[in-house]
Amino acid sequence: GESVGLHLPTLSVQEGDNSIINCAYSNSASDYFIWYKQESGKGPQFIIDIRSNMDKRQGQRVTVLLNKTVKHLSLQIAATQPGDSAVYFCAENAGGTSYGKLTFGQGTILTVHP
Amino acid sequence: DTAVSQTPKYLVTQMGNDKSIKCEQNLGHDTMYWYKQDSKKFLKIMFSYNNKELIINETVPNRFSPKSPDKAHLNLHINSLELGDSAVYFCASSHLDPPEKLFFGSGTQLSVL
């Protein structure tokens, strides 16, 4: 079936470094992508989203890049802080008829060392 | 002023029991969801309701029965609990545009013994 996957399940960085979390997707019909952050004991928290008619979107310290040619999505976090330590999920919709259904990737554990 | 709240946060019960999880959102959203997160952190949709009407049912055993008394509430009742039902269950809600921008509750950790 269609799926979203992550290349790296864990990522360790030093405080102040930039972090890049990658995600591959397989459903070419997907037209909306979203990144979530999940801290221990909490629900996923929205970080940033992007539609398929864009290839880059920036937020506060975060940037999402979308490469539809190779079906690749990435989340860049600038000046990573210990508070950024969490599990990060990418997710995609299933195209026009998905109506709120998201398919999640496996998650990447980001650890930020002081 | 929690946006999406679910209760209880922890639920420990014996196999064969029936239990319910409640969810409420005060965001004014039209659509609510139940997602299941397994021990490997994999998140999968179970159900979706829009204005009290079921719109997504992802081949979930019929022991799971969602109920939406109004568009701000979506409860999940589980009959005859099995060991494999142990997981974290998340309620979420979303508005019309985009419907996929979900706001999640803090989860209910269900442990079936």
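qc> The radius of gyration of chain A is 14 Å.
qc> done
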